[in-house]
Amino acid sequence: MKKELIGIFRGNEKGFGFVKIEDQEEEIYISRGNTHEAIDGDEVAVKIIKDAKQIKHQEGKIIKVLKHQKTKIVGVFQKSKNFGFVVPDDKKINTDIYISKKNSKKIKNRQKVVVEITKFPQGNKSAEGKIVEILGNVNEAGVDMLSLVKEYDLPYEFPIFVLEEAKNIKQEVAKKDIPNRLDLRNKEIFTIDGEDAKDLDDAVSVEKLKNGNYLLNVSIADVSYYVKENSKLDKEAILRGTSIYMLDRVIPMLPKELSNGICSLNQGVDRFCITVLMEIDSKGKVVSSDIQKSVINVTRRMSYKEVQAILNEANHKEEELYPKKKKQKLLEECKPYKNHFKNMEELAQILKQRRTIAGSLNLDIPESKIILDENGIAVDIKKYEMYFANEIIEQFMLTANETVAEKFYWIEAPFIYRVHEVPDIDKVKELNQFLWNLGYKIKTAGDVVYSKAFAEVLEQVAGKPEEKVVSNLILRTLKIARYENENKGHFGIASKYYCHFTSPIRRYPDLFIHRIISKYLQEGYQLKEEEREKYEKQANSYAQDSSEREKIAQKVERDAQDIKKAEFMEDKIGKQYDGVVSSVTSFGIFVELENTVEGLIRFEDLGDEYFIYDEQRKTLRGEHTNQEYKIGDSIKIEVKLADKITRRIDFKLATKEEITNSDNESKKL
After folding, report:
1. Are strands 72-79 and 59-67 parallel, antiparallel or unpaired?
2. 203 and 281 share one domain
3. What angle do the packed helices 388-410 and 338-358 form, to 10 degrees?
4. Over the chain, what is the mean pLDDT?
5. Do 546 and 498 share a structural domain?
6. Phi-psi region of 596 (alpha: psi -120 to 50; beta: other; left: phi over 0)
7. Which ranges in 387-466 belong to alpha helices (H)?
8. Does 455 lie in the same domain as 317?
9. 430-449: burial string, b at 16+ Cβ within 10 Å, e else
10. How far is CA 575 from CA 74, 188, 294, 651, 667, in A?
11. Which residues does residue 214 pair with via DSSP β-bridges, in sequence order?
12. Is the dihedral of CA 622, 626, 632, 637 positive or negative?
């Protein structure tokens, strides 16, 4: 008898699923009848019933659920005469939850609820449960985001004892500690962020030196000065791991007294920082660096858009970002800093060029900007505008992160690195099978691949219709970045040493690194062995926990966007738009609109014929007409379905007769 394997069950809305075994690349397929009572996320024992020699993938049977990951589920209550049931929001949970008449008396039809499972599904029998919380009507303002909070069991409110500790922190820097710090208060220094940013944890300044080099100072809020090790704030931050951004709300890692108060580098007030001072030559190489505790006073808070407007004026670009009067006022107020921003632009271009030569991947995939009204309803969606001013901060933060990581690697300090490993060669070969059809290839040296090879392809497709498609496919081929206490380099940015140091307000690994830096500075870079061992264990534990919390945060943020995109499209059913085929699957094609909204055209909406899926070329071809659909094709669609509860958007092909009247609708998006 073959031994049992232990893994995590990953459910599918169609009833089947897969079990992921730790340190095993291939997942085990579980058919609908072999899932036992497991639901998505459960830890299970599985027995192999067909190995990979018999079929394409291993197939297994779940014989025992070792631990249920979720006992509380969020969903929509459906009332019937003698009972009710809850349809889960998470479609990977492939069971409705039966609610007895006694437990559903006070619940109204189509209310969002939290249900506690009292009996898990067995065979064809649904799960059973009792309702423990009513969130509100499905269309009530804010209920959709609250549902996500409950679905992922997010720590939405801080415990009272954590808030009390935060409120006891003074909102002015301690004057007694200023003499022990590098005083940069007389320097021109700027924060540059999005217009609606509230937690400003990084500030920058650039000087041109007499030898032609640049002095780049990146000052990051000294959060570890306020969040002491083992404090209530620290323990809560460890649990949260990261701030989570849900469009109109944020679930912060730290209370607002720190994130928007004493740790936010607000204009015109003294703030404690850790500053990385870097001398950089004309080729973008950091020729010398230092890390010091500092005190700064931000000269002016700037937005990306404001900096770009100043640079446009300096470079005689015609792009108008502001009305004339507003622009003139901005230019007048920032006239003393014009050369400072020009120096920033010059240095950022040098750093970007160096990074490009090294093989950093420029995956230019546009982000969505979702506009909400005062009730949190999606009223517009467009591409997020990016300026070179964004690039300035990106390049400066990357350089600071690399400088810190390299320094602490060579002194063998306990540390958390941001790791992005080389992609699997089999996945690269699979990608090349598709790229070959477009006339591109990722070059490999045997079974070795370098980031430069990916960068060359991205350079070749830049500005072409297939650019976005190729960028997305490369992104799917790459491994997922994570935190580790061992340095393994960062493939995506072609860096040997990399960490996250620049956002300690919103990421715990950054806060931990600040604590390590502070400890080494305090001890003259000589740590006792027992301290080294303690911090090494912490680095390992926090890296793993933070990687897991980051995954959850990304899921929540993605789900929040999916809900609002579906909500925005709900009143557009029947309307037609231009789109581009973004993905081809064995069950249909995904089409992306100009505003970044993506929908699925299922087989039945592609016409009255059978379509053959070519997995290697990622195409669909009609059996009789030979009509072919491939990634990157322009296509006219009609919105067939949009449902924010299921987070689903379906399209169908626009018919020839209707196409002539659809151009105006496309322009409205």
Report:
1. unpaired
2. yes
3. 60
4. 92
5. yes
6. left
7. 388-410, 425-438, 451-461
8. no
9. bbbebbeebebebeeeeeeb
10. 32, 52, 57, 10, 12
11. 208, 280
12. negative
Which amino acid appears at position 73 of this protein? Answer: I
User: At 586, which CATH number?
Assistant: 2.40.50.140
**What is the band of 1 on the pLDDT scale with cuts at 50, 70, 90?**
very low
Give the span between the Cα atoms of 251 and 506, in whole angstroms. Answer: 10
- What are 444-493's pLDDT values in tens digits? 988 899 999 999 999 999 888 778 888 888 998 999 999 999 999 999 99
100 phi-psi bin (left φ>0, alpha ψ -120 to 50, beta other):
beta
> 169 and 82 in one domain?
no
User: Do 213 and 111 reside in the same domain of the chain?
Assistant: no
> What is the token pair recorded at 274?
């850790």
Q: Please say if the pLDDT value at position 529 is more than 60.
A: yes
Concatenated DSSP letters of 53-108: TTSSS-EEEEEEEEE-S-SEEEEEEEE-SSEEEEEESSTTS---EEEETGGGTTPP
Residue labelled with tokens 């997942």: 27
Q: Which of 560, 593, 612 is the last residue of a domain?
A: 560
Choose the weakest-confidence range: 82-86, 87-91, 319-323, 664-668.
664-668
| Helix ranges restricted to H, 269-323 | 304-314
Radius of gyration of the chain (CA): 27
Q: Considering its fold, how many domains does the chain have in total?
A: 5
Other beta carbons within 10 Å of 170: 10
Provide the whole-model pTM: 0.92
Do 216 and 350 have their domain in common?
Answer: yes
Q: With 70 as the cut, is the pLDDT of residue 513 above it?
A: yes
Within a domain: 483 = no
Q: Domain containing 167: what range?
A: 160-418+494-560
DSSP state of 336: G
Residues 412 and 437 both lie in one domain: no
The one-letter amino acid code at 354 reads R
Amino acid identity at 61: K
